[in-house]
Write a structure and sequence with these properties.
This protein has one domain. The chain is α+β, with helices and mostly antiparallel strands and about 170 residues long. The protein has a seven-stranded antiparallel sheet.
Length: about 170
């Protein structure tokens, strides 16, 4: 009886070691590269509001070639993405790569650096309206990000612009 238990224990241990050895096979490395990674790298901002990131991700992952609009005769495709807080108009080439985007978002959560910059420069003012604009051009690899803010202090109103770093634009 003791020998059968010992034999059973040894067989379980031996099979467990074999399973562990088979599990150590290495798989080939897989690299996934998005067609629009350059757009995401320059336009995508982790401090931006969630609706902004959502639409930018949707525009970057959109597959023009598998859409109903795709025809081989056209060079460019203009696709719009909408949510209640914003919109993205993206231009794709025939290969599905983003050529340019024009993005506009209203009343989204502002990054802390922008809020702190406004509070420091205009201490008794409050932000009553904001618009976030992003323009991206793949050919020149440039992205312009601007926050247009409406500030109020009693009956006074002023409009200011900042970039995503909180630097004021005149």
């Amino acid at each position: 009886m003791k020998q059968s238990k010992l034999l059973l224990l040894l067989s379980i241990l031996f099979s467990a070691l074999n399973i562990y050895a088979f599990a150590q096979d290495t798989l080939p490395t897989v690299t996934v590269v998005s067609l629009n990674y350059k757009y995401l790298k320059s336009a995508y901002d982790t401090t931006a509001a969630q609706p902004v990131r959502l639409l930018q991700h949707r525009a970057a992952s959109y597959d023009v070639k598998n859409s109903d609009y795709y025809e081989e005769d056209y060079d460019n495709y203009f696709i719009s993405f909408f949510i209640p807080k914003g919109e993205v108009l993206a231009t794709y080439n025939a290969d599905g790569k983003i050529v340019s985007t024009a993005e506009r978002f209203k009343t989204v959560a502002l990054p802390n650096v922008v809020v702190e910059a406004v509070a420091n420069r205009y201490p008794n003012w409050r932000i009553t309206n904001d618009t976030y604009l992003v323009n991206h051009f793949s050919e020149s690899n440039t992205t312009k990000k601007v926050y247009k803010l409406l500030l109020e202090n009693g009956n006074k109103r002023i409009r200011v612009k900042t970039n995503e770093k909180g630097e004021f634009i005149e």
